[in-house]
Amino acid sequence: MKLPRLPALLLLCSFAWAHASEKVSEIKLGYTVEQVIEALGKPMGSIEMSDKSRLLYPRGDVTLTDGLVSDFDLMDPAAYAAEQARLSREREEWLADQEKREAAREAEGRALRAERMQSQAFASLPAKHRVDFWRNFQARYPSIDVSEQIATALEGYKVELAELRSRERISELEARVARAEREAAAARLETEKLRKEAEQTRNSTRYGLRHYTYPVIPSPHYRPRTVTIFTNGQTRTTHQHLQNPHWQHWQQPNRHPVNRPGPIICPTTRINTQTVNRPGITGVIPRINTQP
């Protein structure tokens, strides 16, 4: 890509200013706007201020107050022409350098594009990486067309996205199947545990009823209920169990039960009575002593 050259235009402008300087070599203070334009030509622009205005020229500027020249700063025509020639040469050199740089960059880009298109390692990269590479390549080497490579990479990227979504769905299904298998295995273990417990219950001699074992007390001693009554020094003992049919199974000599499991402790009740002769009181006052 070649850039436009302007040396001829700059030289033409310098000749025009030289021709104008031949007509009026220099302006003076007090000149009107018409005289300034006749001497220097039409200005490139102007600046309007509250009390004065300024005309802008390539060689400098002219200040006017109340429509008359009050100050000016202009380069000498010869110095201006020399400056324009120097700028023209510099511009020419810069353009030549830019052309060389652009040619070198374009050659580098074409070589890199050819190398990437022939590389198997680059072709095996994910499509997203290839798309990013060609976009950066296009920004770095704008004079080289890589639209075809970008389109191909984008198509591959779309295919990879579709495959990725498919693999994600397959992975999700596999996870669901694995979770169902784990739950089924846990259910089988729980069922087997319950089956074994039920079998143990059926095989039990007590048919699943809970039972407790109490300690056996060998040869317990029993004492039947007796009542002893003391009346005026006389003692009379009554065995209550002889009158109660529930105690008929007791043995009289040893006071032990016959074929009767479990401890039965019968306390002894002693009743003491005595006659009390006091003024106004006559009778028997019982006194009861309970012994275990």
Give a quick rundown of the structure.
By secondary structure, the chain is α+β, with helices and mostly antiparallel strands. Helices cover 50% and strands 19% of the residues. The strands form two sheets. Strands 1-2-3-4 form a four-stranded antiparallel sheet, with helices on one face. It has a four-stranded mixed sheet with strand order 6-5-7-8.
Explain what you see.
The protein is α+β, with helices and mostly antiparallel strands and 292 residues long. It has a domain at 1-118. Helix content is 50%, strand content 19%. The strands form two sheets. It has a four-stranded antiparallel sheet with strand order 1-2-3-4, covered by helices on one side. A hairpin with a 2-residue loop joins strand 2 (53-57) and strand 3 (60-65). The two termini are 130 Å apart.
Q: What's the helix count?
A: 7
Strand order of the largest sheet: 1-2-3-4
Summarize the main sheet.
4 strands, antiparallel
What structural class is derived from the secondary structure elements?
Answer: alpha+beta
Number of strands: 8
Distance between the termini: 130 Å
Element-level helix/strand string: HHEEEEHHHHEEHEE
Unreliable residue runs: 1-24, 256-292
Rg, alpha carbons = 66 Å
Task: Give the rounded overall mean pLDDT.
Answer: 72
* Shape label: elongated
Share of helical residues: 40-55%
Beta-strand portion reads 15-25%
